[in-house]
Write a structure and sequence with these properties.
- The chain has 236 residues and is of the alpha+beta class.
- 16% of the residues lie in helices and 51% in strands.
- The chain is built from four helices and 14 strands.
- The strands form two sheets. Strands 1-2-3-4-5-6-9-10-11-12-13-14 form a twelve-stranded antiparallel beta sheet. Strands 7-8 form a two-stranded antiparallel sheet.
- A hairpin with a 7-residue loop joins strand 12 and strand 13.
- The protein is globular and about 60 Å long.
């Protein structure tokens, strides 16, 4: 074989190897098990309740078919602009190119929920979407600590939708055992039905619709109640 041809072939192979190596060591694209992720350093203004937060970093997670399945927005965890310490403020999850859910993390005072006698801190706002991109469920997660229990728990009112229409609200009153309850409000056209149960999710016991006397005992007020033995099951 001509020596010039051999030299040219060796040069081409060297260039191909060098390019491949450079791509593999790119610090913004890191291989992980069953996929990889990319990190983008870009300022993005995000509104969280009454706050405006500047996201400094976005990380995109892809599976081994190059499909995006997770995106997270991050901010600096300290006031030091040169810090490498970040914390996540939004997690977004995707399937077949569509966003299926997201979690927004709150840290400031405007994450307080005021409902009736309750003042509740919303640590995380959870939102789920249907295949058409409509919200199908949203509500807050917080931390409950009282004389009987300390745990993470749904707090405030959760909202449920079908084809963009509100069909149900569920309010969690996470009080001490015996004072706890959940209000299930189901909508039917322009009418609604309220059914109240014990807070069986918080205390992991059987769900029981509360009788009028038990509702009065638990000091549940300002409700236009319609008592139906079967109402809870149709609503829930």
């Amino acid at each position: 074989m001509n020596i010039k041809i051999v030299i040219k072939l060796l040069f081409v192979l060297l260039v191909m190897f060098s390019c491949k190596k450079k791509t593999a060591t790119n610090p913004s694209e890191i291989n992980i098990e069953n996929g990889y992720h990319k990190t983008i350093f870009q300022n993005r203004l995000i509104y969280m309740g009454g706050d405006s937060i500047l996201s400094k970093r976005t990380t995109l997670f892809y599976d081994n078919k190059d499909e995006l399945y997770h995106k997270k927005y991050e901010v600096l965890a300290t006031k030091n602009e040169n810090s490498d310490d970040y914390k996540t403020i939004i997690d977004e999850y995707y399937e077949n190119g569509n966003k299926t859910s997201e979690v927004r993390y709150f840290v400031k005072g405007d994450s307080l929920i005021l409902q009736g006698k309750d003042t509740i801190k919303c640590n995380e706002l959870h939102i789920a979407y249907d295949k058409n991109g409509n919200v199908k469920e949203k509500g807050c997660q917080g931390y409950i600590s009282n004389a009987d229990i300390s745990t993470g728990m749904s707090v405030g009112t959760w909202f449920y939708y079908k084809n963009g229409e509100l069909i149900k609200e569920v309010y969690f009153h996470n009080a001490e055992f015996g004072k706890d309850y959940i209000i299930h409000r189901c909508f039917n056209d322009e009418e609604f039905t309220d059914v109240i149960t014990n807070n069986f999710i918080l205390y992991e016991n059987d769900s029981v619709p509360l009788s009028p006397s038990e509702i009065k005992k638990r000091e549940i007020i300002d409700l236009d109640l319609i008592w139906e033995d079967t109402g809870f099951w149709g609503c829930y």
